[in-house]
Amino acid sequence: MVSALLIAKSRPRLIRSSSTLQDSRDMSATCYECALRECGLFKPITPEELSVINDILRERVSRPAGAEIVRAGDGSPELYTLYCGWAFRYKTLPDGRRQILNFLLPGDLIGLQAAMFDAALHGIEALTDVELCVLPRRKVWALFGKKPALAFDVTWLGSREESLVDENLTSVGRRTALERIAALIVKLYKRAAALGLVTDGTFAFPLTQHHIADALGLSLVHTNKTLARLRKLGMFTQGNGSLKLTNPRALARVAQYFDEEIPLRPLI
Amino acid sequence: MVSALLIAKSRPRLIRSSSTLQDSRDMSATCYECALRECGLFKPITPEELSVINDILRERVSRPAGAEIVRAGDGSPELYTLYCGWAFRYKTLPDGRRQILNFLLPGDLIGLQAAMFDAALHGIEALTDVELCVLPRRKVWALFGKKPALAFDVTWLGSREESLVDENLTSVGRRTALERIAALIVKLYKRAAALGLVTDGTFAFPLTQHHIADALGLSLVHTNKTLARLRKLGMFTQGNGSLKLTNPRALARVAQYFDEEIPLRPLI
DNA sequence: CGAAACGTTGATATCCTTCAACATGAGTGG
DNA sequence: CCACTCATGTTGAAGGATATCAACGTTTCG
Fold it and tell me: Which of A134, A163, B184, B261 is the residue whose CA sits 20 to 30 A from B236?
């Protein structure tokens, strides 16, 4: 484990605070000075591999919160790595009901499934302001020929996303509302912690109750009441966009949370 | 589309009827005479690629219905291709509640996620008697170096499985019980049809109501009543292990089913 | 024959949804 | 600066969808 201090020193601001930024670009960014990688929280790679990844990267773009990163039904979508901020994948039924499939945090690959099928079966939306590393499809496919180890990492990241959906499905299908919300918070807490984003039990929590409801298959009203119930139980406190776990153990117990340790992950 | 006759001629018995077979092996099987591939329902490959796939194959094994193919928590699980029969992936909560994540049909890759993480986060169970092509992990990873196009196909199959889980999550989270069951049946029907397993609207349907309930996050009793309701609506009939859609259009409408065409898929 | 797996049905309970109203804060245009 | 809207969060009441409990029928299989 890396010390909290070390992380703090080299950590990028993984969530941008400015909310006025538009669709902007930063052509100067290269993978050699990737603040995310410098955290030391991702699988180490060789200098040669790093150079190949850098060749793939086209640019880094910013999108404001609420922006559609991938539109459902779009053909030939690009691939991205989420560099900073949060996003989520979702599906909508013909009559408008929405299901959030999983949340995306920095380091997550965005749009693999969509790129595979040449058409997105789901939408991807920025939850906060985000920065994305654009990885042109052709170049990623070329990767399979050039650097098998990195191609393997792409597949690995795909499997990891599936495991997130698996967990969420298990919650929605078999946990009560109280357990679902507890499990969601514990999971996001663990993921944030694995990125060095938790300080003293507190981490940025940009979800609205609407997002929680849509992720967990609950109504807005019931989500609100259940959230209040967990708060009254002393599980956590919330304040201006961040959440503090005051009783992580109890929350995990309520959630029937089963810890699934996944090894150090790659970053493409 | 391939004609029904042609399919019938070259089609293997994709579900074995004998229920007494034990953990048996068939060392003689090679990928050159793969009945599944001969159906012409999978992405064509070059003779050279076929030979590489044949090198990967270790053997073909049979497992009886109910057998555990991958046990949750197991380390270093192998990879398989489901050659014939049905299976399913599932998770269980500490207190025993079970969620079926998705069903596996012939041609589906089994255990990719488990192999990636070096430990299964879920179980995989044979729903019917099955035959599995065993693909040793080392050889599959070697594939990434030797045949990038096939490595790409592995990733593709992983993404496809994720899309199945996505769809199921959307059902469980946002559809009513009636819609969920309708959507499940329509989806399985489409998948069976894509394998040439549907004749005159009828296909083998080995799920018990217990499986349906666990896949859709419903109770057994409510599943039974809802199923009865759909039957009374004239949507389908059931008899000794097979299901016949008598009104596919109406069923898809009830399901709020949104057709997601996926191109011809690979077979590893 | 008995047990176990599977399916069916009715009665009751409860979790969750829906409807409705209200509070707060941010942004916007007058 | 104020009125207005909109997004977000909160709370109470009522209804409905689904769960739970219980009993029974059928088939399969040892």
Answer: B261
CB of B84 closer than 8 Å to CB of B130:
yes
Distance from residue B239's CA to nucleotide C1's C1', rounded to whole Å: 28
CB B80 within 8 A of CB B137: no
Helix, strand, or coil (residue A26) = strand
Which tens digit of pLDDT belongs to each residue from B133-169?
999 999 999 999 999 999 999 999 999 999 999 999 9
Q: Which nucleotide is closest to the Cα of A232 by its C1'?
A: D10
Model pTM score: 0.92
Residue nearest to nucleotide D9 (CA to C1'): A224
Whether A18 has a pLDDT exceeding 90, the answer reads no
Q: B-chain residues within 8 Å CB-CB of A161?
A: 162
Q: Shortest CA distance to B254 belongs to which of B231, B238, B237?
A: B231
Interface test with B, best of A70, A74, A88, A91 (most B CBs within 10 A): A91
Round to whole Å and give the CA distance between A164 and A178. Answer: 19
Distance CA A155, CA A177 (A): 33
Residue B241 predicted with pLDDT over 70: yes
Written as six digits, the tokens of B126 are 């044979």
Nucleotide nearest to A220 (CA to C1'): C17
pLDDT value of residue B29: 74
Q: Which helix (H) or strand (E) holds A59?
A: strand A59-63
Mean of the pLDDT values across residues B75-90? 96
Query: A203 pLDDT exceeds 80?
Result: yes
DSSP notation for A73-112: T-BSPPEEEEEES-EEEEEE-TTS-EEEEEEE-TT-EESH
Element (H, E) at A165: helix A148-174
Q: What is the largest CA-CA distance in chain B?
A: 55
Q: Tell me which residue of A144, A143, A156 sits closest to A264, measured CA to CA.
A: A156
pLDDT tens digits, residue range A68-121? 999 999 988 999 999 999 999 999 999 999 999 999 999 999 999 999 999 999
Of A116, A170, A214, the CB nearest to B159: A116
Q: What DSSP assignment string belongs to B73-133?
A: T-BSPPEEEEEES-EEEEEE-TTS-EEEEEEE-TT-EESHHHHHHTB-SSEEEESS-EEEE
